[in-house]
């Protein structure tokens, strides 16, 4: 009948993207935008949420003959699909009642809506979509889902590949060509200094980088050529050079810059150069390999146990993903590896490997926490993005830098105790 509105059930939809009756897939962003628009409309109008009313059919002209407006079977199917999708979207977006603090005067307090977060931000924290998007069936969404990360937040295949390559270079330098090890230590020191100096700019602290690169070359070379005494003198010389470079640029911000330079030189080139000091003694290559193996065992066993049964974080405000269960797994696994390595490789009692693993595990965990504290203080997630699955060089060397000097000291003490007793 002309002017009738009875036959319009299949010609309008509650979702704007399917107003024409053609059911198009809805992306996550479209679903989120639809929810946000509905929330804004509710807050402005103060009305309860209800499904939009169907649009009335256009009035037919009296001059035109009556046309059968009954929807076809295909239109009915599309409209039912659109209505189902709309109910899912709106039903998944039920808000929980929020507690609003009332002032003493009794006047209502306006609550500003929270800014929307992107899909990448939702996946960055937990690796899973939010509860509202999870309620939408996959067949109503389009686009390729983002790859999920492991529970530890890493791209595990890339992380394993990078670790194997770095370990292969170090082992080749240890047992095949010693200058390759010196070159690798020098390059890693230089990149690590660049990463930390670049990160300090987030704290508005400019650090002269030339003294850092000089220390990355001078300290490893001194450890190889002159031993621990030459390493100590070279360290003091590098600190003085860094101080002179900063003074020549002016006094504004000099204190923070100089302290940052001292921290970077001490943290990266100095600690890493202790690995080259181990080459002086007997079985030095095997001792370095044992120390590195303990560092790898600490990360591996801690990761496996933490992912499987980790529930109690050690320091939630610093590194929430490190658990006491993972630390226990690191300790037990490292002790087993250390006992075998010291007995079969270095011809020492098995208990020396247990003691060495005990201290190196504590040092590795401390190194992880130390870098996490620095990154949180600077407000960054990774030192850089040079290594897929790891972040930067410092994100890979954080535990090794603390393990190497302590392993050097403990190994010498153990060798002395075995010789005396």
**Main pleated sheet:** 2 strands, antiparallel
- Uncertain stretches: 1-23, 47-69, 92-152
| Total beta strands | 2
In helices, the fraction of residues equals 55-70%
Structural class estimated from helices and strands:
mainly alpha
Gap between N and C termini, in Å? 109 Å
Biased composition (Polar residues): 1-11
GO molecular function, one term: phosphatidate cytidylyltransferase activity
Catalytic activity: a 1,2-diacyl-sn-glycero-3-phosphate + CTP + H(+) = a CDP-1,2-diacyl-sn-glycerol + diphosphate
Biased composition (Low complexity): 52-66
Structural overview:
There is one protein chain. The protein is mostly helical and 421 residues long. Among the domains are: 173-280, no CATH class; 284-421, no CATH class. Helices cover 61% and strands 2% of the residues. It is built from twelve helices and two strands; from the N terminus they run αααααααααββααα. It has a two-stranded antiparallel ribbon. Residues 1-23, 47-69 and 92-152 have low confidence and may be disordered. Its EC number is 2.7.7.41. Residues 52-66 have a biased composition (Low complexity). Residues 1-148 are annotated as: Disordered. Belongs to the CDS family. Residues 27-51 have a biased composition (Basic and acidic residues).
